[in-house]
Design goal:
With 151 residues, the protein is of the alpha+beta class. It has one domain: Cytidine Deaminase, domain 2. Helix content is 23%, strand content 38%. The protein is built from 3 helices and 10 strands. β9 and β10 form a beta hairpin. The structure holds zinc ion. Zinc ion binds next to loops.
Length: 151
């Protein structure tokens, strides 16, 4: 799926989408899971190639990733030419939107991490099939802006 933001095309690649889709909670009894998003910069596009699953403390409504493991993953994938560009997780709702704590957490991560982009991505996979069940937002200084897929 393709999105645009600030003159950059953002592609969610097939492998990344397959991981998000496979981890949709599907029923209200599944627990939240999440991980990181990794991309390559190709001309003026950002191609999100990979969504990883980070082990963490899971419950139905929250996901607390293990920060040490995340940093090891960032270092390992950087050696393969993939850049950390954001995070994803699942929600037990049809059309997902970020919670208050999701927003707070992502704005904190944005402030604390080193990245080459002027923003980071935040994806949330809900219960509905994509694209309805997928939230994609950009995290910028002080705000999270929702993006809509383009055809
Ligand atoms: Zn959430």
């Amino acid at each position: 799926m393709k999105y645009f933001h600030r003159d950059i095309t953002i592609h969610l690649g097939a492998t990344c989408l397959a991981t998000l889709d496979a981890n949709r909670q599907r029923t209200r009894f599944h627990r939240e899971i999440g991980g990181q998003l990794f991309a390559q910069f190709v001309d003026s596009s950002l191609v999100v190639e990979r969504a990883t699953c980070v082990k963490g403390v899971r419950s139905r409504f929250s996901f607390l990733p293990h920060r040490g493991e995340e940093q090891r993953e960032i270092d390992a994938l950087f050696r393969q030419g993939l850049h950390y560009v954001g995070d994803w997780h699942t929600h037990p709702e049809g059309t997902p939107t970020p919670s208050g704590s999701d927003r707070t957490k992502m704005l904190e991560i944005f402030q604390q991490s080193k990245h080459q982009l002027p923003y980071m991505l935040m994806a949330i996979a809900g219960l509905e099939a994509f694209p309805d069940g997928l939230f994609l937002g950009v995290v910028e200084a002080g705000q999270i802006v929702q993006l809509w897929p383009r055809t």
